Amino acid sequence: MTEPSPHVTTERIESVLVVHLDDGKANALSSDMIVAITHALDQAEADDTIGAVVLHGRDGRFSGGFDLSVMRSGDWGGVATLVSDGGDLVRRIYGSPVPVVAACTGHALAAGALMLLGCDVRVGADINCKIGLNEVAIGMVLPAWAITIAQDRLSRRHIQLAVATAQVTDGRGAVDAGFLDTVVPADDVLAHAVARARELSALDGRAYAGTVLAVRGPVLDRMAAQITADREAGTSPLV
């Protein structure tokens, strides 16, 4: 199969589709990477023999956020498009009828942390890494869709710290905050994530998909409306 991006490859392990993210650097969420991850989700959702997906980062990095070459380009229309495309991806993961497990291998900042919020189960590396929403610390305002999913997934005790004060934490702290569900030794992250994905793949697919819509439908609808509003405005609230 030809991949839309050389930085995203897929591997089939029994009923699980593993999506490997590796750009050799920060695993920045570029337009190409967004398209490639979306393509992998399309593949999983179209194949009845695939019961779950694992999003797997490179060694030490899940994703460092949106592509800085775009974010610092001065092309505010391009920034708005990338951020809205990222919102569509996070929403797509959160609303997928196929369970999605994150294998968080290390740093997950900004859009990387938002992808974690979209995944059903988040397995992280028990290492000294940075996970969180650091936008306010670097002079940016989170888009409304990002705040919506943060409010839905993060611990109530941590929303203000994680969002308004841009508190970044390590893997264990990310479990308490709600970015991760568990941490394991770094060498075991992928194996543990695949094992959890296998368990989820045994769920009744129709029941799972219907329950996702019932539980997350209002949040998904709100995110969709917010992303559409951002696209129509043509500017990003991040800048």
Descriptive overview:
By secondary structure, this protein is of the alpha/beta class. β1 and β2 form a beta hairpin. The mean pLDDT is about 95. The protein has nine helices and nine strands. The chain has a single domain, classed as 2-enoyl-CoA Hydratase, Chain A, domain 1, CATH 3.90.226.10.
H/E element order: EEHEEHHEEHEEHHHEHH
CATH class: Alpha Beta
Distance between the termini: 38 Å
Widest beta sheet: strand line-up: 1-2-3-5-7-9
Estimate the helix proportion, in percent: 40-55%
The count of domains is 1
Could you tell me the strand content as a percent range? 15-25%
CATH topology: 2-enoyl-CoA Hydratase, Chain A, domain 1
Name the CATH superfamily classification: 2-enoyl-CoA Hydratase, Chain A, domain 1
Tell me the major beta sheet: 6 strands, mixed
What does the overall shape look like?
Answer: globular
Give the rounded overall mean pLDDT.
Answer: 94
Q: Count the helices. How many?
A: 9
> Which architecture name does CATH use?
Alpha-Beta Complex
- Class by alpha and beta content: alpha/beta
